[in-house]
Amino acid sequence: MAVLELSGVSKHFGAIQALTDVSLSLHAGEVVGLMGDNGAGKSTLVKIVAGNYPPSDGTLAMEGRPLAFHKPADARGEGIEVVYQDLALCDNLSAAENVYLGRELRRGIGPFKILDYRAMYQRAGELFAELKSETRPRDLVRRMSGGQRQAVAIARTRLADPKIVLMDEPTAAISVRQITEVLSLIRRLRDHGIAVVLISHRMPDVFAVADRIVVLRRGVKVADKPIAQSSPEEVTGLITGAIETA
């Protein structure tokens, strides 16, 4: 059974049709590469799954249960986490403090509670070790490379024990070495049985880690197939419209 099933999902904003009749399934331990040109509908689709927008038509189901999200907290409650392109990290805080941002651990009795830094640093360290990242809990984010920042954002999703992680352009504007690090982090999520949706314009990255590729063009799904049965040339043709469907 699919972890998440979208059936006939459409979304319009007034006269603008952003998505038309898109059906999509996500399975545990699978990386799905979501590709398309600017304005293809990728962000709209992700925001529907993340609870930012309700669909205009169509349905969502989690492991067979119908879903109706009214806000992002509803999606997080179902185990859906998002790593946005800007990462939403606080530069002046440590890696561990960013991992626990908004979910801080406290100790004490009744109203007399203080932040439990020891527990947060320990658990953050365990998450970085699990992800095989060199990031350390006490490192300040402002001194980190792009790859290390991604590790902090991904560790934050792991804290919630998610079923699905949506990643928006995680390898944009970072070095080749850091890209390798981030792709390894994505593989770690997959190895832990998490479904990952990788939104990216970088064809080599998608073909390096994705099990399946989905292509949107002008709000319509024009391909959904195993990555082994496609090629960068075919995907380029699907994105540009040189190839109608695959």
TrEMBL record:
ABC transporter domain segment(s): 4-243
Question: Which InterPro entries did the record assign?
Answer: AAA+_ATPase, ABC_carbohydrate_import_ATPase, ABC_transporter-like_ATP-bd, P-loop_NTPase
Gene Ontology molecular function terms on file: ATP binding
Matching Pfam families: ABC_tran
Q: Which PROSITE patterns match?
A: ABC_TRANSPORTER_2
Spell out the SUPFAM superfamilies in the cross-references. P-loop containing nucleoside triphosphate hydrolases
Alphabetically ordered keywords of this record: ATP-binding, Cell membrane, Membrane, Nucleotide-binding, Repeat, Sugar transport, Transport
**What protein name is recorded for this chain?**
ATP-binding cassette domain-containing protein
**Source organism (scientific name):** Variovorax robiniae
